[in-house]
Structure formats: C-alpha cells, structure tokens
C-alpha cells in the first residue's frame, strides 16, 4: 500500500510539473486590474484598446491586454470566454500571435447591439469576419487547431459540439504566443472572464507521416 501511495504521489507531481498553469503565463499590455482564482482569469479590460492593422479604418493599434504562453509546433488550444460587454466593439477571446504583423484573434464581439462570433486574421493588414448570434450568450468556447500552415477555428456553446467558423493561414514551424485577450476600442472598459484554458500538443504531421512511411 505504501508503495502504491508513493507511486501515485510521484505521478501527480509529474503531471503538475508538466502542466501549463495560468500563473506561469505572461502579460503583453497588462491591464490595471486582474486576478487569477481557481483556474480562472478575470480582467478589467483597458479602455480604448484594440488590435488592428491598417485596412478599412486606416489606423494601426496593438495595445489591448493579452495573457499568453509561447508554444512551438502543432497544437489544439481551447478556452471558455464570458464578458460584461457594454458598447460597440467590446470583445474577448483567444489570440494566436506570431508578431505584431501576424496574428489571429477570435471570440465574441459586441456590434450594433448584438453578440457576434468574430475572427480577425492579420498578415500585415487585418481582415474581419463575423457570424451574428440571434441572442446573447452567457459564455462561448473557442477551440483552435494548428496543423502545418493552417489554423482551424471552432466555436461551441456547450463544450461538446463544435462548429468550424474559420480556416486561416499561419506560417508553419514557427513558435507562437497563445492566450486570452480582450479589447475595448470605444468604451471605458468592461470585465472579461476566461476559464478552462488548455493547450494540447499534437504530433507534427509531416514527421508522423515520414515515420510511418519509413518504419523499420
């Protein structure tokens, strides 16, 4: 029995040591007020902040809160998002960022009094796609899967059934910053909450195929 307990404790410690915890992540544009409790990140979103480059509006901004960890290779990332959205363009979600000219941000954006599933893909200039929701939702789950030079983005209302909303290019074999962001371009800020943030490593597809085709 003693041996079994020791093995179980060792396994638990190993799992904890290898896990990505919110406390080990980093801020870009840290907001004035935020906290982490029971695996949940809550932030007061910085007023008049956003991520956008050039197209349509003619300006470039890169000053909204982003809490991230850096990963290489291929992965699946998922997070639950909720927010006290108040004014036009209030938004919260997931960001995958290579640098200031190359990033994807996706989640909920409040526009014209409606909740929208929103994705902005930026490669030097930004584009924007939305799916309008019929009614407000308390929370949304966003999942992104990076394979080769593409990122597939999915949404869910229950963390069970996921629907793809975007497939976007991103340079392969380059480390990226993955995490949670929120922005408030027009307003005085709002509260955003993120939970169940997980990043799962996926075996490199090209390498896996090579090993399969060259098995001894």
Describe the secondary structure blueprint for this structure.
Blueprint (H helix, E strand, L loop, with lengths): L1 H17 L7 E3 L5 E4 L2 E5 L6 E3 L6 E3 L3 E6 L2 E10 L6 E10 L2 E10 L2 E10 L1 E8 L7 E8 L2 E7 L6 E7 L6 E8 L7 E12 L2 H9 L3
Antiparallel strand pairs: 1-6, 2-3, 3-16, 4-5, 6-15, 7-12, 7-16, 8-9, 8-15, 9-10, 10-11, 12-13, 13-14
Can you give a write-up of this model?
The protein has 216 residues and is mainly beta. The protein has one domain (20-203): Jelly Rolls. The protein is built from 2 helices and 16 strands. Strands 1-6-15-8-9-10-11 form a 7-stranded antiparallel β-sheet, with no helix packed on it. Strands 2-3-16-7-12-13-14 form a 7-stranded antiparallel β-sheet, with no helix packed on it. It has a two-stranded antiparallel sheet with strand order 4-5. A hairpin with a 2-residue loop joins strand 9 (102-111) and strand 10. The longest helix has 17 residues, at 2-18. The N and C termini lie far apart (42 Å). Residues 2-19 have low confidence and may be disordered.
């Amino acid at each position: 029995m003693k041996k079994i307990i020791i093995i179980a404790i060792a396994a638990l410690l190993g799992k904890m040591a290898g896990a990505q915890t919110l406390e080990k992540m980093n801020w870009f544009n840290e907001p004035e007020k935020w906290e982490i409790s029971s695996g949940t990140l809550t932030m007061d979103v910085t007023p008049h902040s956003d991520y956008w480059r050039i197209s349509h509006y003619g300006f470039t901004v890169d000053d909204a809160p982003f809490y991230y960890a850096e990963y290489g290779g291929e992965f699946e990332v998922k997070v639950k998002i909720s927010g006290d959205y108040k004014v036009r363009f209030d938004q919260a979600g997931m960001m995958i960022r290579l640098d200031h000219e190359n990033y994807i941000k996706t989640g909920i954006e409040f526009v014209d009094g409606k909740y929208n599933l929103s994705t902005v893909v930026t490669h030097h200039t930004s584009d924007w796609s939305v799916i309008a929701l019929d009614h407000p939702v308390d929370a949304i789950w966003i999942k992104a899967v990076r394979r080769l030079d593409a990122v597939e983005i999915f949404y869910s209302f229950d963390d069970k059934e996921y629907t793809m909303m975007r497939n976007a290019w991103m340079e392969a074999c380059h480390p990226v910053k993955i995490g949670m962001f929120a922005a408030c371009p027009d307003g005085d800020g709002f509260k955003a909450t993120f939970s169940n943030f997980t990043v799962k490593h996926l075996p490199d597809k090209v390498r896996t195929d090579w090993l399969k085709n060259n098995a001894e």
